[in-house]
Amino acid sequence: MNDTTRAGDPGRVLRAVQISSLGTYVPPRVLTNSQLEQMVDTSNEWILKRTGIRERHIADDDVATSDLAVEAALQAMAGAGVTAADIGFLVVGTTTPDTFFPSTACLVQDRIGATHAWGFDLGAACSGFTYAVTTAMQMVASGVHDHALAIGADVMSRIIDYQDRTTCVIFGDGAGAVVVSPAVDPELRILDFAHEVDGSGGPALRMPAGGSRLPASHETVDQRLHYVHQDGAAVFKFAVRKTSEICRRILDRNGLRAADVDLFVSHQANRRIIMAAAGQLHLPEEKVVINIDRFGNTTGATIPLALADALADKRLKKGDLVLLASVGAGFTVGAMLVRWAY
Ligand code: UT7
User: Which of these ranges, 9-23, 139-153, 212-226, has the smallest mean pLDDT?
Assistant: First the structure.
């Protein structure tokens, strides 16, 4: 154990773990608000004002979640200077796996040629990425594996009802992946995570049919039950409250204040949610990363897509203290503190 170990703390580490690299991918096709105006009764003004979204990327019909995940994973591995053979474990946070089984993780493992890796899919909806990074981190922290891939990837357009204006304007498709490895500098590492679930919130955001509770039938298709159903206002309120609550908790227990945070990278579900939570945390706008305008809500991919933009814009630099936060269907809630390693 090194001196970063804190007994009894869920973020405790046996060896310090860093995020070594990041890869992202979005399909090239763009769906703009004005195109949506032709599809449902909505307007560019409403979408922009109520969500902050201008456009989102949509996968072609023959593209599935694993296709996006593979692109992101290859980019992440190249960035970290590791080969597929170096990967011992991979986890894919996704709500839209290619199939129930085999898992998308198995499809990705095969496609990237990670012949020594094992892995699985993780269902945490919009917290898929934070939960995947946490899971991968444990594999490396414990010493079991040296390099692990954590992926958040979704083709939300496959489960969105493009006749329902309350949901179809929000979502987009994308993928992000990170390689996690033992920290080169023990100061530059994943510092902590704080996650919780509140299953009582399940009815507020769900896909009612297609599982063992309500298998696919002509009726479920006719009733449009294979799409995302959401109580937007309930999710909105929960997301604002919980994002700020979990962030405050993780900062407090690490003896940090909002002023210590260099960058706040929250799940991108709605610009108003992010800004309200940031306001409650007293985080100024310049520390908040928002790119929902270009991608919409890509579920498992929003946080890596936002990190990638921050890196490209040089807003995210080696040594920065990054606060990640997510709230998703379940409800799932997550926060991570990362001292950025590159
Ligand atoms: O990643 C986690 C997943 N999801 C979320 O985090 C989403 C959380 N919720 C939200 O982001 C917001 O609740 C929405 C964006 C979904 C909705 O925004 P809102 O400001 O909460 O709108 P609302 O549901 O209160 O609806 C206000 C009005 C309604 O009309 P009436 O009843 O006032 O006449 C809606 O029918 O806006 C109407 N409306 C729309 N109008 C134009 C709802 N969707 C649209 C639309 N275009 N696309």
Answer: 9-23
Residue extents of the structural domains in the chain: 17-182, 190-339
| CATH fold for the domain made of 190-339 | Peroxisomal Thiolase; Chain A, domain 1 (3.40.47)
Q: CA 123 to CA 132: how far, in whole Å?
A: 9
Residues 6 or more apart whose CB falls under 8 angstroms from that of 245 comprise none
Instruction: Examine the pLDDT at 4 and tell me if it is beyond 60.
Output: no
* Listed residue (63, 127, 73) closest to 95, CA to CA: 127
d(CA 155, CA 94): 9
Q: Rounded mean pLDDT of the chain? A: 96
Residues 114-139: tens digit of each pLDDT = 999 999 999 999 999 999 999 999 99
The yes-or-no answer on residue 168 being catalytic is no
With a 6 Å cutoff on the Cβ, whether 126 touches ligand 1 is yes
Which CATH architecture fits 17-182? 3-Layer(aba) Sandwich (3.40)
Q: Which of 106, 126, 168, 247 is catalytic?
A: 126
Q: Which of 35, 40, 166 to mutate to test the pocket of ligand 1 (most atoms within 8 A of CB)?
A: 166
Q: Helices marked H in the chain — which ranges? A: 33-37, 44-51, 65-80, 104-112, 128-141, 165-168, 218-222, 232-253, 271-280, 292-295, 302-312
Helices (H) and strands (E) in the chain, counts: 11, 13
Q: How far is CA 85 from the centre of its chain?
A: 25
- Could you tell me where the beta strands, DSSP code E, fall in 163-240? 173-182, 190-197, 205-206, 229-230
Among this protein's residues, is 270 annotated catalytic?
A: no
